[in-house]
Amino acid sequence: MNKKRALSKLIVLAFLLVSGLSASLSQAEIAVIVHPMNMSTIELPDIRRYFLGKRKRYTNGLVVVPLDQSHSSSEKKEFVETVLSKSQVQLKTYWAELLFTGKGTPPIEKESSEEVIQEVATNRSAIGYIDASEVKGEVRIVLIF
After folding, report:
1. What is the total count of domains within the chain?
2. Is residue 18 part of a domain?
3. Looking at the domain assignment, is residue 97 inside a domain?
């Protein structure tokens, strides 16, 4: 009986390891992108400030135009949790308070990565995030996570 119990524990453990591995493999990398002519050096804390409305200009003086993905996208969920260190509910509450007090407006929401790429490629002030596999030569990556 001990051999059967040990074998079933081993099978459960193997299943958990494989399912955890496949979940981590399926999670896409996210790239934060800017216009190729935007020569600002951009660090993670600055990206966080741009997307929370706490900093309005790049180090080169250009006004920042942050672009958000659709609220239902996996890219947004990953970006909000990893870069902004918030849940989507916390972020929604954060922006509701700023809007109500007149102290800020949330990033412009785009419906797809293609829309983010198009806007970033044509607007030197834009900054957005997309699945890293969708990056094209018309934008510059400043961070991958």
Report:
1. 1
2. no
3. yes
Encode the chain in three state secondary structure.
CHHHHHHHHHHHHHHHHHHHHHHHHHCCCEEEEECCCCCCCCCHHHHHHHHCCCCCECCCCCECEEEECCCCCHHHHHHHHHCCCCCHHHHHHHHHHHHHHCCCCCCEECCCHHHHHHHHHHCCCEEEEEEHHHCCCCCEEEEEC
Q: Is residue 58 part of a domain?
A: yes
pLDDT tens, residue order, the chain (145 aa): 566 555 444 454 444 444 444 444 456 899 999 999 998 789 999 999 999 999 999 999 999 999 999 999 999 999 999 999 999 999 999 999 999 999 999 999 999 999 999 999 999 999 999 999 999 899 999 999 9
Which CATH number belongs to the domain containing residue 121 in this structure? Answer: 3.40.190.10
**139: domain range?**
28-144
